[in-house]
Amino acid sequence: MKNTPSRTKGRLILAAYRLPFKIIQNETGYSLFQNSGGLVSAVLSLAQGQVNTSFDFADKIQWVGYTDNNPEELAGVTLENESFKAHPVFIPPQINEPYYEGFCNDLIWPLFHYFPSLAHFENTNFEAYQEANLLFFEKLKEIIQPNDVIWIHDYQLMLLPDLIRQQFPTNKIGFFFHIPFPSYEIFRLLPTTWRESIIDGILGADVVGFHTNDYVEYFLKAVRMVVGYGNKLHYVNLNNRIVKVDSFPISIDYQKFNDAFDLPEVKHEREQVRATLKEKIIFSVDRLDYSKGLLHRLKGYERFLERFPNWHEKVSFVMVVVPSRDQIEQYQQMKSEIDQTVGRINSSFGKMHWQPIIYQYRSMPFEELVGMYTASDVALITPVRDGMNLVCKEYVASRKDVQGVLILSEMAGAAAELGEALIINPTDAEEIGSAVVRALEMETDEQRKRMEAMQMRLREYDVFAWTNDFFTQMLMIEQEHKKLSHA
Ligand code: ADQ
């Protein structure tokens, strides 16, 4: 680990809704198996000093999050591996249901993705949200020591920064928001006391991060309108401290995806796909969610098939959807609409020996995913709203052959960084259809130029640079606080 003697060492504490570990019982006790997600590897590299930050963390990373394991089963058990110590938060089902399914997934998610008609406003859900944030705080209270740095993630924990700030005024707190922060006209649909609590809650942090400048602007406007604090550039001026609000576009482990191109399993997967599907391949992969524009995508592809019969039998669209939230009625309904639309398109245009859409409803292991990314001629990513969207970044990063065309919705946060993609509006089926033809016919030279430009950007600002950027701001805010207290 890096040594910076000027700073007393504190620990890094992460708080996010779900623990990123599988808790497995064995003969000697319990073991933690960490997920291989981008955030996990990013904080790991930060704590191990691989990231160039002046923070130097003591001890293992402490991770606080919900688990549905039985509290009695884990009572008194230490949960750790070589890098992390896990601190489970137990939320009883009678709170977790209205908190997570109700307030988070049935109100904040649809509202912040601009689907107000799907949003449900229930007082009891907001009460559960407050209670669950308090349960997180109770757990953190047992852990936090002076000099610890706390990094809180996402819309499930918007009240937590201020709960911590009240009791631990000097600890550094960061908050990162993974979904869009909506324009004020949407945000103001929340009842007055709820929106005040949310803004005050988030402003408990020292640094508040969003994916794009637009989300930053919307948040700053909400701050002005709801609680009346002004801002100078990206600093919100509270009475006794300042909060930095800025954009930190999240990214991926670029090198991991780029190197994966040459993995034997990935090569095998790619060759198999290409041997099976002789025609050109269009690919998409997302969670089942109305924000991902799955039906818009199908409509655009259908328009393409109607307008360009010369492409029939020369292209296949492989659409993979990973099951998500399928206990919720809206999601079940959407799933059956997708099933019907795929059936309709395949039966209208298909031939005995050609299926226009190959649709799978399942999760994919990493090697298969990269195999598909690298076998495809086109990636078709059409969210109607997406905080960032990592799939398009993964597609670009994995193309070590510098080939392939990305078609990307302007509604994805990632569109701000990936201007060399063919940018479309997902509600415009004609535009999607035309972009598909343009992508299929694009010369390899042009593909290369566009890919190179996007790859250069993603290589430079990968998930490690993102983490570094965030923590650099956390250090700088300390200087700003000092200036303010001497002023
Ligand atoms: P998500 O809405 O989950 O994340 P996204 O950013 O696209 O969306 O990430 C999805 C991840 O799941 C990707 O790493 C992808 O490879 C993986 N995935 C998707 N379908 C899969 C499948 N069938 N099998 C296996 N893996 C699959 C939220 C926000 C986003 C924001 C991220 C990160 O909604 O806007 O980009 O957080 O901040």
Question: Secondary-structure blueprint of this entry?
Answer:
Layout (H helix, E strand, L loop, with lengths): L11 E7 L2 E6 L2 E6 L3 H10 L13 E6 L4 H4 L4 E2 L3 E6 L3 H20 L10 H21 L5 E5 L6 H8 L4 E5 L7 H4 L4 H11 L4 E4 L2 H14 L4 E2 L2 E3 L4 E6 L6 H7 L3 H13 L3 E8 L6 H14 L7 E8 L6 H21 L7 E5 L4 H10 L2 E4 L9 H8 L6 E5 L12 E3 L4 H13 L2 H17 L2 H24 L1
Parallel strand pairs: 1-4, 1-7, 4-6, 7-8, 8-9, 9-12, 13-14, 13-16, 14-15, 16-17, 17-18
Antiparallel strand pairs: 2-3, 5-6, 10-11, 11-12
Helix pairs in contact: 1-17, 3-4, 9-14, 10-13, 11-12, 11-15
The structure holds adenosine-5'-diphosphate-glucose.
Adenosine-5'-diphosphate-glucose (ADQ) binds next to β13, β14 and α14.
Shape: globular
Class computed from helices, strands and strand pairing: alpha/beta
| Rg over C-alpha atoms, rounded to the nearest angstrom | 23 Å
Strand count: 18
For the biggest sheet, the summary is: 10 strands, mixed
Spatial strand sequence of the major β-sheet: 5-6-4-1-7-8-9-12-11-10
Which regions contain 5 or more consecutive residues with pLDDT less than 50?
A: 1-6
Strand content: 15-25%
Small molecules (ligands, ions, cofactors) in the structure: adenosine-5'-diphosphate-glucose
Q: Which assembly state applies to the chains in this document?
A: single chain
Helix content: 40-55%
Fold and architecture overview:
With 487 residues, the protein is of the alpha/beta class. Helix content is 45%, strand content 19%. It has 17 helices and 18 strands. The strands form 3 sheets. Strands 5-6-4-1-7-8-9-12-11-10 form a 10-stranded mixed beta sheet. Strands 15-14-13-16-17-18 form a 6-stranded parallel beta sheet, with helices on both faces. The protein has a two-stranded antiparallel ribbon with strand order 2-3. Helix 5 links the parallel strand 7 (149-153) and strand 8 (172-176). Helix 9 crosses helix 14. The longest helix has 24 residues, at 463-486. The two termini are 36 Å apart. Mean pLDDT is 93; it is low at 1-6. Residues 178-179, 250, 285-287, 320, 322, 363-364, 369, 386-391, 394 line the site of adenosine-5'-diphosphate-glucose. Belongs to the glycosyltransferase 20 family. One of its GO terms (molecular function) is trehalose-phosphatase activity. This is Bifunctional alpha,alpha-trehalose-phosphate synthase (UDP-forming)/trehalose-phosphatase.
